[in-house]
Protein 1
Amino acid sequence: MVARVSGVELVEVDEPELRPGEALVETTVVGVCGSDTHAAAGEHPFVPLPYRPGHEVVGAVRAVAADVTAVGVGDRVTVEPTLPCGNCKMCRTGRSNICENLRFFGCGYEQGGMAERFTVPAGRLHRLPDAMSDLQAALIEPLSTPVHAVRLAGGVRDKTVVVLGAGTIGLLVLRAAQHGGARRTVVTDPLPQKRERALAMGAGAVYDATRPDLVEAVRAELGESADVVFDCVSVQSTVDQAVRLASKGGIVMVVGVPVRPVSVALPELQDLQVRLQGSATYMPEDYDASIEMIMSGWVSPDDFVTGRFPLEEAAAAFAASVSGSHLKVTISPGLAR
Ligand SMILES: NC(=O)c1ccc[n+]([C@@H]2O[C@H](COP(=O)([O-])OP(=O)(O)OC[C@H]3O[C@@H](n4cnc5c(N)ncnc54)[C@H](O)[C@@H]3O)[C@@H](O)[C@H]2O)c1
Ligand SMILES: [Zn+2]
Ligand SMILES: [Zn+2]
């Protein structure tokens, strides 16, 4: 993997003013996400540069506006970074993750969680169980994306599942699919170290994504077509593989953020009755399910957090994140070096 992250810079800004409905949070841990590194490389379709990163945030509430009752000073919290309007059709029909007026804390929003302190609408904070560590809590946001994708796929109980891409999201999809009762799982990645991690996490089989006969090999491994393919990369080759793996009658979940246009084999999609489904972030219930999964030990920072950096070394954290040898890299303002 080529490290394509360029200008990551620490800048001093004024402490944000607490507005009605908001809480002031002091950051303890914040994850670096594939979306952050894409954005920093100028490749995120919806995040113009410069931007203030950090949406996988854990911290402690330091102040609340007078009208806030949902959280109080001292509460340990994580942010659900989607900022829906609450009024549009999507918000009114239980799909606030795709709100018509959606803003996203840490992704093109005026603030992000890679600051020492930030303000955010208090309604977007989830209180953490006392027994949950900050590092465990840093996995809630990333895990919620796979939990949502599995739910949108209609669940995976007794189904054959293929996960394309064994990065943080792909491996969390694997854990969520296992938790959801998948009958058989296969994971692909071009990097041997990622495939080894997938095997260590109990994948039924792993395959080099660059194999020219990948689709035939995985179908032979499964002994049939895939019921659900989670594309956690979303480039031309993975979308082509996904459709062919899901034929006939399967589901392709598009989880990876495509950084450039990708075409879909529409004749196959139609004739072989493949369902193509985008999956965008999560809903509060996905956060609740993630918290349970992490508390039960099903998803552990020991398996996922491979690098921890102090805030002063944010640029090194971004570089590590795209190096290919890490999974989840986190930044902690208070971390001693
Ligand atoms: N849908 C959502 O709401 C949502 C939320 C968070 C992240 N994402 C996206 O999910 C994707 C994965 O995120 P991540 O944090 O795991 O990134 P990551 O960089 O950690 O993982 C990507 C993995 O894909 C592998 N890969 C590259 N090319 C491949 C190919 N052709 N076939 C198979 N594997 C390949 C890489 O080796 C790497 O292991 C990103 O596009 C990210 O933006 C989507
Ligand atoms: Zn993220
Ligand atoms: Zn809305």
Protein 2
Amino acid sequence: MDGRFEVVFLGTGSPLDQSGHRCGAGQVVVAGETHVLVDCGWGAARRLRPSGIVPALIDVALFTHMHTDHITDVPDFLFQRWTSGATKPLQVFGPEGTAEMMEGFLLALRRDIGYRKAHHGDKLHPDGIRAEVTELPVTKRPATFLELGGLRFESFEVDHYPVVPAFGYRAVFEGRSLVLSGDTVFCETLAEAAKGTDMLVCEALNLPMIDEVIAMLKAAGREREASLLGDVPSYHIETNEVARLAREAEVGELVLSHLIPPVLNDSEREAAFVEGMDGIYGGRIRVARDMQRIPVTKRA
Ligand SMILES: [Zn+2]
Ligand SMILES: [Zn+2]
């Protein structure tokens, strides 16, 4: 039996500075033969093949919230999944707003779906481009909504106000557990869901680095963008707060993704990004990169 349980990072960046090295939020949780996509921001779909993932193997997609950096590659993903051989509708789960988002994307694709069917005939299964959406209830504690091939997924609310509702997810497979924070500030629901988990994948904002970007924008006369960026820290979690949460929740190890700002794939910049965290949290801290696979291992 294939007991692998890992996270494949498609996009580890954030909306700022949309340079190519870190795409919008997206990851695939692989548990045995089951592949679950969690978010699909800009560029995430094009990371699938180079990450060794056949899009048609993904039968389930989850969304944490409806911010653009988590959803705008959905159309490309749907087509890649269809053309790589999907024969069943995609099962989609997410907060309120997910159904509207999927309907909107499928409406935008409606003409092309017709062209492809006309051109390729029965080489493309008509069900492979469909989606069945379930909007999940808002719960403070993790609530199970999916059990597939031994993998269990639970959802819980996080605090990304004014984005309401916004979810984090917890996955359990063969006695190992994984929590994905979604976008959030420090909140008790995340700390509780992460309690004792083997691996926490958390978003993170480095405040001194954001202040540097704001100063650069101001110096370049880009006052409006500097001012918009000044609003960003209020609904994200700072690196030291991530470390505090990991310590309080006694998580086995910590992986940072959705980096704000999206630092270069450079070990020095990544070390600067996490500076100070190891003084607060004693476990292993990693900064994920696009197309990296990180296994969920049982905590020591
Ligand atoms: Zn967000
Ligand atoms: Zn985001």
Protein 3
Amino acid sequence: MKPRLCPLCGSERVARAEYGMPAPEQAEDERVFWAGCIVGDEYRYGCHECGATFDRPAMAASAASH
Ligand SMILES: [Zn+2]
């Protein structure tokens, strides 16, 4: 579930993190945080306010499977 507030700065501008190259119209969509091309260290959400990324899927997966 998407956090409502950024855990670092408290901003509400939290968005789903996406990786890769956005189309121009996607880059302006605040619902998506473009985290760039990072391999092996992917976070699920990002903050438009401070640029932080958080909530790694690996941590959530291990908690859910036990
Ligand atoms: Zn933030």
Protein 4
Amino acid sequence: MGLVNLRKIRRAKQEIGGREVAVVISPRPEQTRLGTTVWQTFKSLLTGMKITISYLFRPSTVVTQQYPENRETLQMFDRYRAQLKLVYDEAGGRLCNCCQICENACPNQSIKIEWTKNPDTKKKELERWIWRMDSCTFCNACVQACPSNSITFGNEFESAVYDRRLLVYTLNDKAGPDAKVWSAIEDPAEREKLMRKMDRYSGPIPLSGTSLPGNPSGKEG
Ligand code: SF4
Ligand code: SF4
């Protein structure tokens, strides 16, 4: 049995073929006794297993999750980005005012804001807030770009589907004015009259970001 003492490895210059070249000189393996070799092997194994073994004595700090067995109790970290969501005020009004800054900030056209202008108030009203999870990279640029904190990422992570079309979300379930108009009306029944229920998209898979679904007019997005 022999071990190479790594501390004795050194650089040097040697003349090879009439030229001086840089070489690394490694010492010959030193002969060791069998007992020493077994101990060194065991010691390096223990060093490698140190962290694993330490978790036996502090199981509450283990970070590995037994998923899906712990599906009912699993808590994801607050910063985990899973589902993009619209933010609403206390009265239930949608903060998004359709400025489309997030749409322009998205590097891969994963957002499409469809809006109409109310002829009476002359204000923008949201039709569909479309998020394409199938192309989203969860970079968070849209959330950071939004000037009114109207979108956020939730951490509900179970998003797997068998059909890619189901990854194109309409985030708003109702079309209509934003919180500034909606929440200013006190009568809940009057508020609801301003809103229209939105259906979730289900149709052919869009081939590119230029042909987003959920566009009732059928025009290119
Ligand atoms: S997280 Fe990034 S890729 Fe996803 S929608 Fe927002 S800006 Fe686009
Ligand atoms: S989510 Fe924010 S940035 Fe995007 S359209 Fe609404 S208000 Fe503008």
